[in-house]
Design brief:
Shape: flat
Structural class: alpha+beta
Distance between the termini: 57 Å
Strand content: 15-25%
Largest sheet: 5 strands, mixed
Order of helices and strands: EEEEEEEEHHEHHEEEHH
Number of domains: 2
Radius of gyration: 24 Å
Bound molecules: zinc ion
Strand order of the largest sheet: 8-7-6-9-10
Number of strands: 12
Length: 297
């Protein structure tokens, strides 16, 4: 437990903060309220000094009748909720990305050490910062929504391999430079996935759960049957057992809400073709429930 940061408001726009070993330092407020923080960080970027206060948002009390929500995080849909909602984290537009590339090209062409080079780099950095700001904003809003509406929020334990698959697109249209693009896109999204989980935990402490979920995408949300064949396409889920059909991400979030992702380890059967739960690299890469689809006695 540390003491709070000592701060004084000077007027509507300005305030000052006591920096140890430095004394009072004035700064311009970007929010109406003075922050109540335990720590702060001073940075220098784009030719300006910035001071940022670490503010932990106040916890939101559980609605008590909200029940459980499952959140499935993915590439095509950033967060698919088990109530059917599909939430997407805003990213940079194609135009904005083009602008960044333009600035980077200009910076590369500018003479070494020139002011123009620094200016172009700074412009590119500002554009990139926009994306991070949007992501943060989205995570704050979304986590508030989750904490306010539901008593328990369940997240699937992220499986990087599933994301890789999602990013690849379709077999018919693999596209060019898919690997690089997918990697980039995934990296950007991955930051949002982690942030959403952290923000939700702050707003709903003790009400967030992680579901170990190797089979959330393969399990039928209606009957519980787990089979790879139910997930023939990336977008759709069609249960081969009961015929239940659903958006694949939504189906996964339903399983996450139910806390049903993992299935009990199969019993070692003595007969031929008995189930072997060999843990190899290949089975770790891709969920391969060899025993499912076979009705258990
Ligand atoms: Zn089913």
């Amino acid at each position: 437990m540390g003491r709070s940061v000592v701060m004084q408001r000077l007027n509507r726009r300005w305030a000052q903060v006591k920096v140890p070993g430095c004394g009072w330092v004035r700064f311009r407020l970007t929010r109406a309220e003075l922050p109540v923080a335990k720590t702060f960080r001073v940075t220098f970027s784009n030719g300006q000094w910035h001071i940022a206060f670490a503010v932990v948002p106040a916890p939101i009390t559980a609605p008590t009748a909200g029940g459980v929500i499952g959140v499935d995080r993915g590439v095509t849909i950033t967060a698919a909720l088990s109530d059917g909602r599909k939430l997407n984290c805003p990213q940079l537009t194609v135009k904005e990305r083009a602008q960044i590339r333009k600035r980077q090209r200009r910076a590369a062409r500018a003479p070494k050490g020139s002011e123009a080079k620094a200016a172009e780099h700074a412009k590119a950095a500002r554009l990139k910062a926009r994306e991070a700001n949007r992501r943060k904003d989205w995570c704050e809003k979304t986590s508030t929504l989750l904490a306010r509406t539901y008593d328990v929020v369940r997240f699937e334990k992220l499986n990087i391999k599933n994301m890789t698959r999602s990013a690849k697109g379709t077999v018919e249209q693999p596209g060019r430079n898919v690997r690089q693009k997918a990697g980039l896109n995934r990296g950007i999204l991955a930051q949002g996935w982690g942030l959403l989980r952290r923000c939700t935990e702050q707003r709903a402490p003790g009400r967030v759960e992680d579901v170990p979920a190797p089979y959330t995408s393969l399990r039928c949300g209606a009957c519980g049957w787990i089979e790879k064949k139910s997930r023939e396409s990336q977008a759709d889920f069609l249960c081969v057992s009961c015929g239940f059909t659903c958006n694949a991400d939504e189906n996964a979030s339903v399983n996450v809400a139910a806390g049903q992702g993992g299935i009990p380890r199969p019993r070692q059967s003595a007969g031929a073709g008995g189930v072997t739960a060999a843990v190899s690299r290949s089975s770790a890469r891709e969920p391969q429930p060899a025993w499912v689809g076979i009705p258990l006695p």
